[in-house]
């Protein structure tokens, strides 16, 4: 079955830039989406269609795509950004797939 | 404002069934689909399937085919997910989410608060 691969953890200091990657063979043909999930809460959409930001999401969140890898970038990381981040895309038949998640730690 | 409000926590025995509800408000229910996503304790997100609130068409994850049924009641703007023949590894928080179509798949812009389903003898 199709898989999206994320690093289990990323750590950054406040004010620095965090980059979380997601790799998958179908990503050149399918959009990627990113969700933020804080403990005990439902996920929140932070990036859609590779690089679009929903209303209400801070400008420090951005997304990019290159080949089989998509990247969520958080510029000027704040303590409140500490959370789990999940990428989502689809396989060649359109079936929804989530990455395994990345725990972002703000040091 | 868009809201998805789910039913409360459930405790079930192995082999039983559970039915979780998701009441939508703040938008035209039949203009969007609903997906269900679950999350086992300490684990990642798993997509379970999708239902069109417009015509009831469904698309289930292959892993759950035959055990899951998703339905909607347009008169009350409520979506339902029933999972049968429960096993211990079905213990998870179950989320409903409003699904937007994108090419041949979906993504999720609003989520319910989650419903914990515990399967234990």
Description:
- The complex is a heterodimer of chains A (107) and B (121).
- Chain A has 107 residues and is an all-beta fold.
- Helix content of chain A is 0%, strand content 44%.
- Chain A contains no helices and nine strands.
- Chain A has strands at residues 9-12, 18-23, 33-37, 44-47, 61-66, 69-74, 83-90, 96-98, 102-106.
- In chain A, the strands form two sheets. In chain A, strands 1, 3, 4, 7, 8 and 9 form a six-stranded mixed sheet that branches. Chain A has a three-stranded antiparallel sheet with strand order 2-6-5, with no helix packed on it.
- Chain A is globular and about 40 Å long.
- The mean pLDDT of chain A is 96.
- Chain B is mainly beta and 121 residues long.
- Helix content of chain B is 0%, strand content 56%.
- Chain B is built from no helices and eleven strands.
- Chain B has strands at residues 3-6, 10-12, 18-25, 33-39, 45-52, 58-60, 68-73, 78-83, 92-102, 105-111, 115-119.
- In chain B, the strands form two sheets. In chain B, strands 2, 4, 5, 6, 9, 10 and 11 form a seven-stranded mixed sheet that branches.
- Chain B is globular, with a radius of gyration of 14 Å.
- Chain B starts with a strand and ends with a strand.
- The mean pLDDT of chain B is 97.
- Chain A binds chain B through residues 30-31, 33, 35, 37, 42-45, 48-49, 54, 86, 88-90, 93-101, and chain B through 35, 37, 44-47, 50, 61-62, 95, 97, 102-109, 111-114.
Number of helices of chain A: 0
Report how far apart the termini of chain A are.
Answer: 36 Å
Mean pLDDT over all positions of chain B: 97
Strand proportion of chain A: 35-45%
Which percent range fits the helix content of chain A?
under 10%
């Amino acid at each position: 079955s199709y898989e999206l691969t994320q690093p289990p953890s990323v750590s950054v200091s406040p004010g620095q830039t965090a980059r979380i990657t997601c790799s998958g063979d179908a990503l050149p043909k399918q959009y990627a989406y990113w969700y933020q999930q804080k403990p005990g809460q439902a996920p929140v959409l932070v990036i859609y269609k590779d690089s679009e930001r929903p209303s209400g999401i801070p400008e420090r969140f951005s997304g990019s795509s290159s080949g089989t890898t998509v990247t969520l970038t958080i510029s000027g990381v704040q303590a409140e950004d500490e959370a789990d981040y999940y990428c989502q895309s689809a396989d060649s038949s359109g079936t929804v797939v989530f990455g395994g998640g990345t725990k972002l730690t703000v040091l | 404002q868009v809201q998805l409000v789910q039913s409360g926590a459930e405790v079930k025995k192995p082999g039983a069934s559970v039915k979780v509800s998701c009441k939508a408000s703040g938008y035209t229910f039949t203009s969007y689909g609903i997906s269900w996503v679950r999350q086992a304790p300490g684990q990642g997100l798993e997509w379970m399937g999708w239902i069109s609130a417009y015509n009831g068409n469904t698309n289930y994850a292959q892993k759950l085919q035959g055990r899951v049924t998703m339905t909607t009641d347009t008169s009350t703007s409520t979506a339902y997910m029933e999972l049968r023949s429960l096993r211990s590894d079905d213990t998870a928080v179950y989320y409903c989410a409003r699904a937007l179509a994108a090419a041949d798949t979906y993504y999720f812009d609003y989520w319910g608060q989650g419903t914990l389903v515990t399967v234990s003898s």
